[in-house]
């Protein structure tokens, strides 16, 4: 019988991808582990590398980390890395995996491959415009080109987590973001007590177009709409999930052109979601049913919110059900891991 490979996921855990995929790989009979850097959002992982403390603690924790990662290098057969980060600083370890018969998968999650020049040149609204100056963008783009060239030389498989990054890594394959559906029970919308409760949870306000959302909400309030906005920032992942359940409508980013983990989680819980979707990206998304989002950008966010506020509770509940079904078919971790196992088997 062929022995299943041992699989390493790390060292970042954005969107809890490392932790969730490793957990579900174990359910499929693989020996898999997620080893990640410390996470202020307390996302699920198997091993969180120690850090901080006084000088002695920093030295001992750094030494332990290097020894442990050295052990992982020899103990695992497939290394699924994220965000251009490998076991060694500067990726000097990349040539060694192939020399020892190991396989490397690199999954890109966003700003690790999204280039400033292309984004600003092609799109009126893009999140990178609010995160970097043009001068910083030039430097970042050069770094991305240099790193991708190195990774293409040594990495066995390139993945992107969303179709909005496919244009930056043209030889990549899409692996949809995954969530653990067991952690997201479908919850009916809260009772309507005379006002709509909206929620927006930016990890970076510029990245999400928060200022445009706040302006649209204030304009609607001035016009007499009974709405409350829960602006959620700097909370743990568990607190975030709790806050989803208290709102009627979730508003994610409106400048990026695609949806991320927050939108998926909100849909899974049963919250109609407003997010920016760029039609040109659909050609890179050949899976699942029609997208169940309310599409908005800074030009249209006021009108879209006004339209959504005009829906009946029954219409909103129908939208919530469609969102849940979409997540179950595309982003359920068990569905994503089946695709991932196929990718591993092809290596």
UniProtKB/TrEMBL annotation:
Gene3D superfamilies: Glycogen Phosphorylase B (3.40.50.2000)
Source species of the chain: Alkalisalibacterium limincola
Designated name of the protein: Glycosyltransferase
Source taxonomy: Bacteria, Pseudomonadati, Pseudomonadota, Gammaproteobacteria, Lysobacterales
């Amino acid at each position: 019988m062929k022995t299943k490979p041992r699989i390493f996921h790390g060292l970042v855990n954005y969107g809890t991808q490392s932790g969730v995929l490793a957990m579900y790989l174990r359910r499929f009979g693989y020996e898999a582990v997620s080893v990640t850097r410390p996470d202020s959002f307390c996302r699920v992982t198997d091993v969180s590398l120690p850090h901080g403390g006084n000088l002695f603690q920093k030295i001992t924790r750094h030494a332990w980390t290097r020894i442990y990662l050295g052990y992982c290098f020899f103990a695992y057969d497939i290394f699924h890395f994220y965000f251009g980060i490998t076991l060694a600083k500067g990726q000097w370890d990349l040539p060694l995996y192939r020399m020892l018969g190991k396989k490397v998968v690199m999954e890109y999650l966003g700003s690790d491959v999204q280039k400033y020049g292309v984004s600003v040149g092609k799109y009126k609204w893009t999140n990178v415009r609010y995160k970097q100056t043009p001068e910083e963008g030039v430097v970042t783009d050069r770094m991305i080109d240099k790193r991708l060239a190195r990774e293409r030389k040594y990495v066995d498989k390139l993945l992107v987590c969303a179709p909005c990054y496919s244009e930056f890594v043209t030889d990549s394959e899409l692996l949809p973001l995954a969530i653990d559906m067991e952690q997201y029970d479908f919850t009916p919308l809260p009772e309507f007590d005379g006002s709509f409760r909206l929620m927006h949870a930016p990890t970076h306000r510029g990245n999400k177009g928060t200022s445009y959302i706040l302006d649209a909400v204030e304009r609607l309030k001035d016009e007499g709409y009974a709405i409350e906005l829960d602006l959620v920032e700097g909370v743990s992942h568990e607190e975030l999930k709790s806050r989803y359940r208290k709102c009627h409508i979730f508003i994610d980013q409106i400048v990026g052109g695609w949806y991320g983990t927050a939108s998926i989680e909100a849909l899974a819980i049963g919250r109609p979601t407003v997010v920016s979707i760029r039609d040109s990206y659909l050609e890179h998304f050949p899976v699942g049913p029609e997208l169940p989002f309310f599409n908005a950008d800074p030009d249209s966010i006021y009108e879209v919110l006004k339209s959504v506020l005009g829906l009946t509770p029954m219409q909103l509940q129908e939208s919530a059900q469609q969102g849940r079904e979409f997540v179950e078919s595309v982003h359920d971790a068990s569905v994503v891991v089946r695709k991932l196992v196929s990718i591993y088997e092809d290596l």
